[in-house]
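INPUT
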Amino acid sequence: MAKKSPTINGGSMSDISFLLLTFFLLTSSINTDLGIARKLPPPLPPDAPKPEIHDRNVFKVAVNFRDELQVQGARVDIADLRDMAKEFLANPANDPKKSEKKIEDIEGLGSVPVSKGVVSLRNDRGTSYEMYVKVQNELTAAFHELRNELSQERFGIKFDDLKKDAQIEAIQKAIPLTISEAEPTSAAINTGK
Amino acid sequence: MGKFNKNAKKGTPEINTGSMSDIIFMLLFFFMVITTMRESTLFVRINPPTATEVQKLEKKSLVSFIYIGPPMDAQKFGTEPRIQLNDQISGVRDIAQFIEVERQSRDEVDRPLMTTSIKADKSVKMGILTDVKQELRKMNALKINYSTAKGKEREN
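OUTPUT
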């Protein structure tokens, strides 16, 4: 009589496929969307008073329909925008043409000079979205770099690496993201996070 | 009759577990097929601009998308950039209703955290975007996110 062939134990096969299943479940993170986060200003009542901002505290950025960039009345290249914005907001030399600073007490930081500067962004209806995003990106980067520098100075680590909410909040208060977008009719302050 | 008795003498037979894996695999495929992201089919072409200062879009379930771009079906919708909400080409006027519907479908607790992600093509002009933004402001949907691709860091 021929020898009966032994049955192969297929029980572990299910374990293997279970492992595969869990592996794919865990690793297949849906590709997260990236983007520049902004907060729109709430709708203004028509009789709302215009916020009064001193002229020297306004960093005027305008983009026309040919995607040409104008900063403080002069045409500049997009590559210079970031440094110009940083210079304006930080104003290390206390230039009377650049933003004013107000010493404020912030919990966790003590007294720090907070810039009163506001970036005013104005664009044409014909400006391309690509250029708009580029400008927004450079402006965000300027604020971001300032925050990083302050955080490095005070806490010894970059703003991105801060873990404590109190520290993050303190830095955010010391360097508020003040980008104002001109409305079709009037301007309003647009403050992000 | 005799045949059956012969087999029964050999004790309990092993249960064949080989098909177990097939069942699990079927489950795997089932879930793989089922979990298509709840993302609407695009009717507009979107080639997002790049940026470096990007943030991750958190809480995907609280995000509503507005797509803006030139329509793929140029014969039907023309070549001018259009707005797509859910699965159809819409106008600026439809945004209010869209936001309202999106809001109704979320928990009341989560409503203030809702974000509107604007996915627009590079070539779109700001005019249409300004209209959309104004409409969102009217609806008090103030958290927005300009969807971009991650670009290279500028050389310093």
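end of record. The CA atoms of residues 106 and 173 of chain A lie 7 Å apart.
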